[in-house]
Amino acid sequence: MKKVYVNEKWCLGCRLCEYYCAFAAAGGNDMAKALKGVKPNSRIKIEKHGDISFAVSCRHCKEALCLRGCITGALGVTDGVVAIDHERCVSCYTCVLLCPYGAVSPSPEGPAQKCELCVKTTDGSPACVKGCPNRAIVFEDRGE
After folding, report:
1. Where are the alpha helices (DSSP H) in 27-144?
2. Which DSSP letter does residue 121 get?
3. Do 42 and 15 form a contact (C-beta atoms < 8 A)?
């Protein structure tokens, strides 16, 4: 299964991936209009430690702790993609606490949010990958 991978040696820490992710989640046609006056709400987050920058994103684990700990069954797997059913999520954030990678977070609307590989919003490649100017973020199958 294809997943998002980050090469921290190439990451500039520019945060463009966060903007492209937020734009894809907003479902707009014009980034400037969709994000004007709005704090971007991305499912990918840039972390910086010293001189190293890297993107934190859901790894769609085969044995996902977030999925196993969800008290309402709002988390599910479809074609290897761990996704959240926002209608079933009660915002208990157990999944946020259980994710060992810090890839699940509360959303401003209430339910938890995480990367779902843009399966509902783009044409097959996540927006963060398309928007990375240095190609530090890739979408590929590494046979894990």
Report:
1. 31-35, 65-69, 94-98, 127-131
2. T
3. no
What is the CB-side half-sphere exposure of residue 44 using CA atoms within 13 A?
A: 32
pLDDT tens digits for range 86-117: 999 999 999 999 999 999 999 988 999 999 99
To the nearest 10°, report the CA torsion of 122, 127, 18, 106. Answer: 40
Are 134 and 11 spatial neighbours (Cβ–Cβ below 8 Å)? Answer: yes
Instruction: Give the Cα separation of 116 and 23 in Å (integer).
Output: 14
Q: What angle do CA 31, 34, 39 make, to 5 degrees?
A: 105
DSSP secondary structure, 27-39, as one string: T-S-HHHHHTTS-
pTM of the model: 0.86
Q: Letter for the amino acid at 65? A: L
Q: Which helix (H) or strand (E) holds 24?
A: helix 16-26
Predicted confidence at residue 131, as pLDDT, reads: 92
Task: Give the chain's length.
Answer: 144
H runs (alpha helix) in 38-134: 65-69, 94-98, 127-131
